[in-house]
Structure to design on (159 residues):
């Protein structure tokens, strides 16, 4: 039984809605945010590589990159090994969107935690930190303990 009722995920989705709403007000859409994020994590990639990474149509990626370039969020540079190929890089403006996103999320979470007393907030923060550490540890290991526990539960429920 999931005692969290997936509320961590649901709160994160609400924060993401706020971020997307704010970004749209700045003229950047959801698909564009995903593309900027991908370029930030893979600077110097090509449009073809982006299409593959994002599982998107090459024509759609071409349109988005053109729009983002016009908005000053991406720049193109000729590939040194192939002059026909262009590499994409985020601009400082794109990097500042990342800061904006983090600031919006932090402000929203601070707003939410204001409904807690100081003691409740401290207990919540400690528990959340413990869960986050366990999550990252398990993730870095490839989820072996979770897979074993989930497999065991599934086998137990079938028997």
């Amino acid at each position: 039984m999931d005692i969290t009722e997936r509320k961590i995920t649901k709160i994160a989705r609400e924060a993401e809605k706020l971020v997307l709403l704010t970004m749209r007000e700045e003229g950047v859409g959801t698909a564009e945010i995903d593309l900027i994020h991908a370029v930030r994590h893979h600077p110097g990639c090509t449009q073809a590589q982006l299409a593959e990474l994002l599982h998107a149509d090459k024509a759609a990626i071409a349109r988005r990159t053109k729009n983002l370039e016009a908005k000053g969020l991406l720049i193109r540079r000729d590939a040194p090994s192939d002059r026909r190929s262009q590499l994409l890089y985020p601009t400082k403006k794109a990097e500042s969107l990342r800061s904006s996103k983090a600031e919006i999320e932090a402000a929203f979470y601070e707003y939410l935690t204001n409904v807690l007393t100081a003691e409740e907030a401290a207990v919540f923060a400690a528990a959340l930190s413990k869960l986050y550490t366990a999550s990252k540890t398990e993730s870095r290991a490839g989820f072996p303990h979770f897979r074993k526990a989930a497999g065991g539960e599934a086998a137990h429920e079938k028997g």
Remarks:
- The chain has seven helices and two strands.
- The first helix runs from residue 7 to 25.
